[in-house]
Amino acid sequence: TGRGRWYFISWKGDIQKSGGIATNIGVHFFDMLTWIFGDVKENIVHLLLHNKAAGFLHLEKARVRWLLSVDMNDLPDGVKTKGQRTFRSMILENKEFEFSDGFTDLHTLSYQEILKGNGFHLEEARKSIETVYTIRNAEPIGLKGDYHPMLKKIK
Length: 155
Prior knowledge:
By secondary structure, the chain is α+β, with helices and mostly antiparallel strands. It has a single domain (6-152), classed as Dihydrodipicolinate Reductase, domain 2. It is built from 7 helices and 5 strands. It has helices spanning 6-9, 15-18, 21-24, 27-37, 77-81, 106-115, 122-136; strands at 40-48, 52-59, 62-69, 89-92, 95-98. The strands form 2 sheets. It has a 3-stranded antiparallel β-sheet. The radius of gyration is 16 Å and the shape is globular. The mean pLDDT is 85.
């Protein structure tokens, strides 16, 4: 998801306030992955910068090569040509599921549910928080092992 200069000036660009890119941009994605595919068995980080991160998660029922970036230069050319700032995609059993849309007002809806008493409990959030903590504190290994294919193009 591309972000402008405002991102790095705001609290979101400060790792001490936001937890960094894996937490700020990726925590919901990692939460979804563990909810669907089970607990993390292995968590490897290939790249960890202030504006992008990538790695490999071995989950109970899936092996996931992931990439997060707020750098618009990392968007696929076809997405940039359309003028889109967001690209979210997963490939499951050689079938792509593109889900870039559908996140409008997600935080507003979540906050409304919290105010109604329908929030999430600590134990429900623990797996995803531990996942992003591990990513944030990992030593990246570079382009070794099972890394995301888009990493070859990223600068």
